[in-house]
Design a protein that fits this description.
alpha+beta, 3-stranded antiparallel beta sheet, 6 helices, about 20% strand, globular
């Protein structure tokens, strides 16, 4: 993770500049522009697989959800803007988002049933900073997909093992449910979702298919 020069910028300054034509991905963390690590093939395969599965489940249940390509999530207040790996949007609520039309940005929990971060080398952002901000925003469900077992031992065990953490908001705080090989993922947003940890990790080549 590479940080740009130390001058703090506002959210408005950030969205006026990014995305740019460099092909790189940036986020704004408390006024600091942060260049995100380039995604690996495994990372992108898992993202693509989950997008397909969640989209199919949304359609099956006739839910008004969509998964956009490039959207910023802005915690309020503050000068941050995140670009999640997967962002499930509740389309009917977008009319209430003041920054949606011009800046492709959402800030209301009612717009975000589910957000997914597939862990990269900047794993602390997913486990600490984004976790805290998504919780404070009131986002009902947050997945941390740690296919390469990069996170801290307090989260994924000792010895470390690939884990999917499903964080569910209860009384304003996330309750963490951990899923590992041999388990089916339990999702409050999609209670009938038939998806196992093996299926997700096989998509990125982390676990060999039988």
């Amino acid at each position: 993770m590479t940080q740009a020069p130390s001058k703090l910028v506002t959210f408005n300054e950030f969205v006026a500049r990014y995305p740019d034509d460099s092909g790189k991905l940036y986020e704004l963390h408390d006024g600091v522009i942060v260049e995100m690590p380039p995604p690996t093939g495994d990372h992108e395969e898992i993202v693509g697989f989950l997008v397909r599965k969640l989209s199919v489940e949304s359609d099956r249940l006739n839910l008004p959800y969509l998964i956009p390509k490039t959207v910023f999530v802005k915690p309020l207040p503050g000068e941050s803007a995140y670009s999640p790996d997967i962002l499930l949007l509740n389309q009917p609520n977008l009319i209430n988002e003041p920054l949606w039309k011009k800046k492709s940005t959402v800030s209301q929990a009612a717009s975000i049933p589910l957000v997914v971060e597939v862990v990269s080398t900047n794993w602390r952002d997913d486990y600490y900073k984004k976790y805290a901000d998504y919780e404070e925003m009131g986002i009902p469900e947050y997945w941390i997909v740690d296919y390469a077992a990069l996170g801290g031992r307090e989260y994924i065990g000792k010895p470390k093992q690939p884990t999917i953490l499903v964080c569910c908001l209860e009384d304003g705080e996330y309750q963490i449910n951990k899923f590992r090989q041999g388990q089916r993922i339990q999702s409050p947003t999609f209670p009938e979702l038939n998806l196992t940890v093996e299926q997700v990790f096989q998509a990125g080549g982390t676990i060999s298919a039988e």
